[in-house]
Specification:
single chain; mainly alpha
Length: 323
């Protein structure tokens, strides 16, 4: 049985990278879906397709989705924080800003998670190294955003909506870690319940939020189906496992990778402009990820060993010449 408590480092790393790749393309799918649907309709379709994909996966693997009654209230909170509210905010924002810029704002999630973790999870409060890595990653995000030119054509409301969505993600990561992860429940069951509750909430809100005209072309349908089945379906199983294996703050760093492909896809598909600061900021973001997860220690140790050996070799050569 695949459980939420996956601890094998390699398996968690693979799911982390798959999650990053899937969520990289999500902002492009949102932009494509908005060509025929309203923001609320995109979110409704996303959650319905996501719930269907997870239901099919559970049936194919003969996985029981039954969960203790006491868990459903917590999963309802998670569904609101990780699905309904941030999805609506990002979809609305992408009507006014580029998909690449939305993906860049999404990279602020680890900073929001850090703040929520410091307040709610004593056992996972970040140390100096992790805090330095998160600040480094945030500096990279600032470089990508280029605040010195943000006044030209960027809607302030859309920017604030994106930051509000990342705040929801940060709180959702921490809530999931504190109240759901310790129970050791099957990740597929948790993801199916979470997305299913999100779909149910949106169906209730649909008459009020998603009642506008629909222009459902094949590209729009494909975009929303991919957004739901991959970005909201399988991705949430991987996310649940990564949160359980690495902790809330480290798991949230997956959003640091989103600007790299998000900006590239936006430039290739929608000809969104790319300036020099975006790849430069991306490099700083990757450095922040490595630092926050202590990935640089082996490299630093190897460099120090090489320097010591080189110094020892030079000392030996000098001693030989003296003799």
């Amino acid at each position: 049985m695949t459980t939420i408590a996956i601890r094998k480092p390699r398996r968690v790393l693979i799911q982390y990278l798959a999650l990053a790749l899937t969520w990289d393309a999500s902002f492009l799918f949102i932009k494509a879906g908005l060509e025929g649907l309203s923001p609320a309709q995109v979110v409704l379709g996303r959650l319905v397709f996501g719930a269907a994909a997870l239901g099919i996966a559970a049936a194919a693997t003969r996985h029981r989705v039954g969960l203790p009654v006491t868990v459903w209230g917590h999963l309802g909170v998670v569904a609101v924080l990780l699905c309904v509210v941030p999805f609506l905010l990002f979809a609305w924002a992408e009507e006014h800003i580029s998909s690449g810029l939305a993906s860049i704002f999404n990279a602020a999630t680890p900073l929001m998670t850090l703040l929520a973790t410091a307040a709610a999870l004593r056992a996972e409060r970040p140390g100096r190294l992790q805090f330095a890595g998160l600040l480094t990653g945030f500096a990279g995000v600032v470089l990508i955003i280029a605040p010195w030119g943000i006044a030209s054509g960027t809607a302030l409301g859309a920017d604030l909506a994106c930051l509000g969505a990342t705040a929801c993600y940060g709180a959702g990561f921490v809530y999931l870690r504190r109240f759901v992860s310790p129970l050791g429940l099957p990740s597929l069951a948790v993801a199916a319940a979470q997305v299913g509750l999100g779909a149910a909430i949106m169906l209730v809100l649909a008459p009020f939020l998603a009642a506008g005209p629909v222009h459902l072309t094949p590209p729009v349908l494909l975009a929303v189906a991919s957004l739901g089945a991959l970005g909201t379906g399988l991705a949430y199983v991987w996310n649940t496992n990564v949160v359980a294996g690495w902790g809330a703050a480290n798991a949230s760093s997956v959003t640091y990778l989103t600007p790299l492909a998000g900006v590239l896809l936006g430039a290739l598909v929608y000809a969104e402009p790319v300036s020099w600061n975006e790849p430069a900021g991306g490099a700083v973001v990757i450095l922040g990820i490595a630092l926050s997860q202590d990935r640089l220690r082996p490299l630093v140790s190897a460099v120090h060993q090489f320097q010591r050996r080189r110094t020892a070799g030079q000392s030996g050569d000098t001693a030989g010449l003296r003799q």
